[in-house]
Amino acid sequence: MKKLISTSIFALSGLMIAVNAQPASAKIICEDSYQIVNGTPIATPYCGDRWLAKISGVSFRLIRSDHSVRQRVCQSYGSDPRVASICGSDADYFRRRF
Length: 98
What we know:
The chain is mainly alpha-helical and 98 residues long. It has helices at residues 2-20, 45-56, 60-65, 67-77, 84-87, 93-97, and strands spanning 30-31, 34-37, 40-43. Helix 2 packs across helix 4.
Protein backbone atom coordinates (compact mmCIF):
# COMPACT_ATOMS: atom_id res chain seq x y z
CA MET A 1 0.00 0.00 0.00
CA LYS A 2 2.85 2.40 0.87
CA LYS A 3 4.46 1.72 -2.51
CA LEU A 4 1.20 2.57 -4.30
CA ILE A 5 0.85 5.84 -2.38
CA SER A 6 4.45 6.92 -2.98
CA THR A 7 4.15 6.04 -6.69
CA SER A 8 0.92 8.03 -6.91
CA ILE A 9 2.47 11.04 -5.18
CA PHE A 10 5.49 10.88 -7.48
CA ALA A 11 3.28 10.68 -10.58
CA LEU A 12 1.05 13.49 -9.34
CA SER A 13 4.01 15.78 -8.61
CA GLY A 14 5.44 15.08 -12.08
CA LEU A 15 2.07 15.91 -13.63
CA MET A 16 1.85 19.18 -11.68
CA ILE A 17 5.32 20.21 -12.83
CA ALA A 18 4.48 19.40 -16.46
CA VAL A 19 1.24 21.40 -16.29
CA ASN A 20 2.86 24.45 -14.69
CA ALA A 21 5.90 24.49 -16.95
CA GLN A 22 5.70 27.19 -19.61
CA PRO A 23 8.02 27.63 -22.56
CA ALA A 24 10.55 30.43 -22.30
CA SER A 25 9.69 33.55 -24.24
CA ALA A 26 12.46 34.17 -26.76
CA LYS A 27 10.86 37.12 -28.49
CA ILE A 28 13.12 40.13 -28.96
CA ILE A 29 11.47 43.32 -27.74
CA CYS A 30 12.66 46.51 -29.43
CA GLU A 31 11.92 50.06 -28.39
CA ASP A 32 13.13 52.41 -31.11
CA SER A 33 16.70 51.26 -31.83
CA TYR A 34 17.19 49.59 -28.43
CA GLN A 35 16.52 46.04 -27.30
CA ILE A 36 14.84 45.78 -23.90
CA VAL A 37 16.61 43.18 -21.74
CA ASN A 38 15.28 42.80 -18.19
CA GLY A 39 13.86 46.31 -18.43
CA THR A 40 17.15 47.85 -19.56
CA PRO A 41 17.55 49.33 -23.06
CA ILE A 42 20.62 47.99 -24.89
CA ALA A 43 21.73 49.11 -28.36
CA THR A 44 21.79 46.08 -30.67
CA PRO A 45 22.26 45.81 -34.44
CA TYR A 46 19.00 43.84 -34.76
CA CYS A 47 16.83 46.54 -33.19
CA GLY A 48 18.85 49.24 -34.94
CA ASP A 49 18.06 47.66 -38.30
CA ARG A 50 14.38 47.36 -37.33
CA TRP A 51 14.32 51.06 -36.47
CA LEU A 52 16.12 51.94 -39.71
CA ALA A 53 13.57 49.90 -41.69
CA LYS A 54 10.68 51.62 -39.94
CA ILE A 55 12.02 55.10 -40.61
CA SER A 56 13.10 54.47 -44.20
CA GLY A 57 10.21 52.27 -45.33
CA VAL A 58 12.65 49.68 -46.71
CA SER A 59 11.99 46.04 -45.83
CA PHE A 60 13.64 44.92 -42.59
CA ARG A 61 14.50 41.58 -44.16
CA LEU A 62 16.22 43.33 -47.07
CA ILE A 63 18.24 45.57 -44.75
CA ARG A 64 19.33 42.57 -42.67
CA SER A 65 20.24 40.37 -45.62
CA ASP A 66 22.07 42.83 -47.90
CA HIS A 67 24.69 45.14 -46.41
CA SER A 68 24.83 47.30 -49.54
CA VAL A 69 21.10 48.08 -49.13
CA ARG A 70 21.78 49.09 -45.54
CA GLN A 71 24.61 51.36 -46.71
CA ARG A 72 22.38 53.03 -49.32
CA VAL A 73 19.60 53.56 -46.77
CA CYS A 74 22.13 55.02 -44.35
CA GLN A 75 23.44 57.33 -47.06
CA SER A 76 19.91 58.61 -47.63
CA TYR A 77 18.78 58.81 -44.00
CA GLY A 78 22.09 59.09 -42.15
CA SER A 79 21.67 62.80 -41.45
CA ASP A 80 18.39 62.09 -39.63
CA PRO A 81 19.18 62.34 -35.90
CA ARG A 82 17.00 59.29 -35.19
CA VAL A 83 19.36 57.01 -37.17
CA ALA A 84 22.71 58.83 -37.04
CA SER A 85 24.05 56.57 -34.29
CA ILE A 86 22.79 53.43 -36.06
CA CYS A 87 24.41 54.20 -39.40
CA GLY A 88 27.70 55.56 -38.13
CA SER A 89 30.28 55.49 -40.92
CA ASP A 90 27.85 53.87 -43.37
CA ALA A 91 26.14 57.25 -43.71
CA ASP A 92 29.08 58.69 -45.62
CA TYR A 93 30.31 55.46 -47.21
CA PHE A 94 29.58 56.53 -50.78
CA ARG A 95 30.93 60.03 -50.29
CA ARG A 96 34.31 58.66 -49.16
CA ARG A 97 34.51 56.13 -51.95
CA PHE A 98 34.26 58.52 -54.90
